[in-house]
Write a structure and sequence with these properties.
Largest interface: A-B, 38 and 33 residues
Distance between the termini of chain B: 64 Å
Number of helices of chain A: 7
Largest sheet of chain A: 10 strands, mixed
Strand content of chain B: under 5%
Largest sheet of chain B: none
Radius of gyration of chain A: 16 Å
Strand content of chain A: 25-35%
Strand order of the largest sheet of chain A: 4-3-2-5-6-1-7-8-9-10
Helix content of chain A: 25-40%
Distance between the termini of chain A: 32 Å
Oligomer: heterodimer
Shape of chain B: globular
Order of helices and strands of chain A: HEHEHEEHEHHEHEEEE
Number of strands of chain B: 1
């Protein structure tokens, strides 16, 4: 098992975190805290000595600023495939090179546990036909799983129609959904584990609060 | 004559209250959404929408008073002075700025529309300078401060709406563009029409429409689901 970097989420997922050799998808609207989950996942890997790769369509400086804002020390950083500030460029118009570079980076670290976090899923889905992206991601996920690696991908809720998200979710072993819910006059961020490899279906919704020290997760009681 | 004035004043008051109630609820909702979000950019944006709501209330009450009435010479604008008006437009510019930052991240290609990451620094400097200069020479710089956020919003939002890949964000930006356009129309009309009460009523109507557009845009500020939609057994 691979720690999520958030102890309360590890407990929820059976005390150890995400399954080995798995692909995890986190879906939610912008600003809800999906990226923070990715940062903690990477930080946890860096602490444990795993090889961590961050594939992003943003500049490295942007992500580092965001990480610092989340309270994550940037003394140790992952290897980058980013739009700028990294030796390997992430060009969304060239999806093949993103996939190739990711696989090559993972292959160079055979024998180590690998963590790949990425935010390019949504932009690639918007810019390319669903059928080709389905093949693209299924191939990438399958090849990464041949190594001792965990892929952590973020998807923007509002960028895709429900049928596209449902199709993409099929490719992943675990899906975490984060959403805002209206309850009277209050608006509460809740998440649920839609599916997770090796776990029975978790039906509960969980209230979460993201802070600079981590994420607190408690079952939501209406 | 007096009864006609009373009627116009009554209608104007009703319109002002409508704007105030809608804008207050919108501002409240923006603050609640801000509280629920984690990302700094998005929190700033929600705060910007709350500022826009406050600015709308200010515009409705500060500028609109029945012409010829006893209150026309002591409107809130006169009492609070041009500096407060300048601050309202600083708030509106903050809203434009925060919206531009959020809009960029909802574009799949992360395009920097109108080179905003650099332009914003210049515009902020101009804006702040204008507020300072407004204290010394009100009229000229106040007009500049007045139109800078509105015009930049009008130019920026439609471009951002076209580029965004997020459906909720596109709707939010479209309604927000309409809000800025109506505030522009209202303030533009205010200059020639503020001498008569019926003219002020005409000025108030775009503000009512602006309040509606702002409330619609806040509906799409962040996609919010209804908790009732969750199956009872799921909780």
């Amino acid at each position: 098992m691979v720690s999520t970097g958030v102890p309360s989420l590890d407990n929820l997922l059976g005390s150890d975190g995400y399954p080995d050799k798995s692909a995890i998808l986190v879906v939610g609207p912008p600003g809800i805290g999906k990226e923070a989950l990715g940062y903690w996942f990477v930080r946890s890997g860096l602490i444990q000595g795993d090889y961590c790769l961050y594939v992003t369509h943003r500049p490295v400086t942007d992500v580092l600023r965001d990480m610092k804002g989340t309270g994550i020390s940037t003394e140790r950083v992952p290897e980058w495939i980013a739009s700028s500030g990294s030796p390997i460029k992430c060009d969304l118009r060239d999806a093949t090179s993103i996939s190739f570079n990711t696989k090559e980076a993972v292959k160079r670290n055979v024998g180590r546990r690998v963590r790949v976090a990425t935010d390019v899923l949504s932009p690639l889905l918007v810019l390319n036909p669903l059928a080709s992206m389905y093949n693209y991601w299924s191939q990438l996920v399958a090849e990464l799983k041949q190594q001792d690696s965990v892929l952590f991908a973020l998807a923007e809720d509002g960028m895709h129609p429900p049928n596209v998200l449902t199709t993409v979710e099929q490719l992943f072993d675990g899906v975490i959904e984060m959403r805002l819910y209206e309850e009277g006059l209050a608006i509460t961020p809740l998440f649920r584990v839609k599916k997770m490899l090796g776990l029975p279906p978790l039906h509960g919704y969980f209230r979460f609060s993201v802070t600079n020290t981590g994420m607190e997760v408690v079952p939501h009681v209406r | 004559m007096a009864s006609s004035l009373d009627f116009s004043a009554g209608v104007l008051l009703i319109l002002q209250l409508v704007v105030a109630v809608v804008a207050a609820y919108t501002g409240y909702r923006a603050v609640v959404i801000r509280k629920a979000l984690y990302g700094k950019l998005y929190r700033n944006h929600a705060l910007g929408v709350a500022f826009a709501s406050a600015a709308l209330i200010w515009l409705a009450f500060a500028n609109l008073a029945p012409a010829g009435s006893n209150t026309s010479s002591v409107t809130l604008a006169n009492i609070l002075g041009p500096v407060s008006l300048a601050l309202v437009f600083i708030g509106l510019f903050y809203t434009v700025d925060s919206t531009a930052m959020v809009g960029r991240f909802s574009d799949p290609l992360l395009r920097d529309t109108f080179h905003w990451s650099r332009t914003r620094k210049v515009l902020w400097a101009i804006n702040i300078s204008c507020v300072v200069l407004t204290i010394l020479t009100p009229i000229f710089f106040l007009l500049f401060t007045f139109f800078l956020p509105i015009v930049s919003g009008l130019l920026l939002f439609p471009a951002l709406a076209r580029r965004t890949g997020d459906l909720a964000s596109r709707r939010h930006l479209a309604w927000f563009s309409a809000f800025y356009a109506l505030v522009f129309v209202s303030t533009f009309l205010f200059l020639p029409l503020s001498t008569s009460t019926s003219g002020i009523l005409v000025t108030a109507l775009p503000l009512v429409a602006a309040a509606y557009c702002l409330s619609r845009s806040t509906r799409w500020l962040a996609p919010v689901n209804r908790l009732q939609s969750i199956r009872p057994g799921a909780l």
